[in-house]
Amino acid sequence: MKKASIGILVVAVGVFVATKVWLRPANAAPPADTFQAPYDPTNMTHFQKPDPAELRKKLTHEQYAVTQEAATERPFENAFWDSHAPGIYVDIVSGEPLFSSLDKFDSGCGWPSFSKPVNDQKVVEHTDTSFGMERTEVRSKTADSHLGHVFDDGPGPTHLRYCINSASLRFIPVEKMAAEGYGDLLPPFIKAGLYKPTAASTNAPAGN
Predict the structure, then answer these.
(1) What is the mean pLDDT of residues 16-25?
(2) Structure pTM?
């Protein structure tokens, strides 16, 4: 009887650990004070990732669990799974741009899905054999944040589906991209007719 009780306790603890990030109320919106990492596109090679104690203060419980502990948020109950607003998605820890709404599609999986990253050099892939499965984990290169997984069942031309946790991302609306230092990523949005360029719409030095 004692062994059975211990077994039940172990299972219960395992379930709690595996789903701890799911304790957030369903459909909760991102907090108003969501951490905004400063972004300097000319100085990312010198980015210093905050230590765990500092990150716990800056990130929500869910953001920390996902990016630092490889947890997974609930499908269909996260911030960006059905968002269609134009803009870019950046690493919540470093601010580095990772994905664009121009490459976002509805995969029906309940998480934000993208056909490709903004730049292949900004993400790294690792083999993930957890939970008895073999998957390809996706992490941000600069901050080493766990983002999600990539699968080969996406649309053309890449046929890839980057299945990403909303908690690992911060969304920058297209109209705020230039002001926040992401003006160099505006041309595709301009070409798509989603943004009208102005004199201050790029990060290029004056006179160039």
Answers:
(1) 43
(2) 0.79
